[in-house]
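Supplementary Methods, section 5.1.

A reviewer requested that the exact input to the structure prediction be made available. We therefore reproduce it here, unchanged from the version used in the analyses.
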Amino acid sequence: MKALIDTNVILDALMSREPWAASAQSLLRAAAMERFKCYITASQTTDIFYILCHQGADAISAKNIIKKLIVSVKVSDVTSTDVQNALNSEMIDYEDAILAYAAKRQKADYIVSRNYKDFERSPVPVLSPEELLKELF
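The structure derived from this sequence is encoded token-by-token as follows.
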């Protein structure tokens, strides 16, 4: 199974944001155990870096967190085709459309997010972290 993880789920795990931290952290542990192929996009790494720094981490710490993350999470590129597809899609949130079309190109089975609404018109089905964990175990 292959899944692209939305930025909100990654941040829930990394920043221990409640009430979502436990399931997000379990999901990343499952990825580290190679229970599924887990992806984020290259553009998400810059968002994660920015948010970690904005929340008080220094640049070195934020980079180290991302280095640890990408040991078990593969980084997918974002192509010009993904950008064009996102711009032409009916998805309202452009950032989520980029993720959706990158996931589609990677042939992901799911996008994992707790934000179903923005992925209503996604070409890839969306599951919550809890739903994916049930599929895996």
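The longest strand covers residues 37-41. These observations are discussed further in the main text.
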